[in-house]
Design goal:
The complex is a heterodimer of chains A (196) and B (350). By secondary structure, chain A is mainly alpha-helical. Chain A is built from nine helices and no strands. Chain B is globular. Helices cover 34% and strands 19% of the residues of chain B. Chain B has a nine-stranded antiparallel β-sheet with strand order 4-3-2-1-9-8-7-6-5, with helices on both faces. Chain B has helices at residues 3-11, 20-41, 48-66, 70-76, 102-114, 185-189, 195-204, 217-228, 235-246, 330-339, and strands spanning 126-134, 140-147, 152-155, 168-171, 252-258, 264-271, 278-284, 291-298, 310-322. Classes of the chains: A mainly alpha (196), B alpha+beta (350).
Chain lengths: 196, 350
Amino acid sequence: MVVEADGRVIARSLVDPACFELVFERHFGSVYRYLRRRLGEDLAQELTAETFAQAFRVRQRFAAGEGSALPWLYGIAANLVRMRHRSEQRRLRAYARAAEQDVVQSPGEEVDARLDALALRPALAKALARLSPSQREVLLLTAWAGLSPEEISSALSLSAGAVRTRLHRARHQVTAALTAAAPAAPEGPSLERSRS
Amino acid sequence: MTGVDEYVRTFVEEPPAGDEAERIAQDYARRRLQRALAVEKDAPTSSLGRLALRLRASQRRRRVLLAGSLAAALVVGAFVVIALLPAQRASDTSLGPGAASAAVVLEHAARAAARQPWHPLTAGEYDYQLSLAGPRRPLWVAELWVGADGTGQMVFPGPVSPQNPFQSQRFSRQHPFVWVEAGDYQQLIHLPISPPALKRWIDRQPELRGRSGRAAGSEEFTIVGDIMRLPAVPPALRAALFRVAERLPGVTLVGPTQDGLGRHGTAVGMTTIGSRGLRNDLIFDPTTGALLGERTVSLSGKSGTPAGSVINWSVYPVEAVVHTDHKLPAKAVRLAHRLHIKLKPSTRSH
């Protein structure tokens, strides 16, 4: 069965707006779960709804687009998140506090990679909170949404070079923060670059 | 993906797909989307959604124009046509040099437009339009032939450059000309011609509403201009557009002036919102009330040009019905000769 490309569906929706519901059904889950991970349930519900409402209103911009509309939708969502970046920072700080509690409450657990990761969570939350909104956006679209630099470039209307630069700086800052916080044990977490 | 990315990836677990929170959120988002769908469906023609989007695209284009580059506006989208508004062929009454207000000028133009004969384009007829824009030299030139079925061509006779990236574009039944604001020709000629109805229609466009819930006056003025410069606009619709503009708060009489080709006219203007201190003017022939062209003027100098200077202008000196999609009207040939402009119609035909 041949699946009609998003661009064609959106082009049809210019004449028959109801066609846009197919785009909604295809991509709601991905956008919602990405936003929920970043902002929590309540804000994610609101911003996902707003993402699709905005996408519908400006769908002409994607009507000639090729490939999946998902990066474009992430781009709209990213703009909405940017307006709420203080909410996200508060959430990340709350993560950091909660993660510190977790570590304190688990002193007897075996020292394994999982505990290492747990130990690093407060530092990671703080490091993410300290990134600039655009660096955080690029890093989370990579790690959580699985977008390539080219897709992020399209989603955020940045050059691919600018995306790579921001991604590099974000990784560098997070690595530095995690290295500083990493347990001194020789088997601490490896933060070396490893292509997957 | 790097080791850092992996830490970030596992930092917050991905929520499970399809759980109750997601279902609730999906229902909520679906209802929001369906309300947006209903706004389009409730619009007075079947394609108002398209029209709203075209209007939005056109607004963006206008903003690009305000930034000072008419040609760059073409880069924004292949559908974007810097279309041309015909000089209306009114011939009797005179506005006179002492027009008292913008409303008087616009009402005069509306009456002149309303008197023009008109018939819808028929099969085999093409609306030819020539537009020129400056002040960049050489002048930016565009020619358009378009039939009622959307077939035809657009030609940009200038050399290809970053500012003028296309030389031509053909329209076919599969890929017809898109009337930037109105979808297709039938939708254009069936827009409301009662000024209050047209105004209500403009204000209903969801994309045009500001945060206050309605379009700002300067946005409406922009929309009026965007529709007016489309090809083949019926005179009755043009008259209605003038009358909508006449009633917009903030439209002012600028006074006697010259258009980009040096023709004498009377300008009415609207200061843009937001603003870097720009004013958009429409210039009318003081004798016939015909629209000669438009321009953007810097008021404050904030846009990088001295206060009072013209940032860009457009004129629409020729519009005529021809019977092929590549024939030049005699008036266009004469004007091109006088201005030393080379027109370059394609010899290709259907």
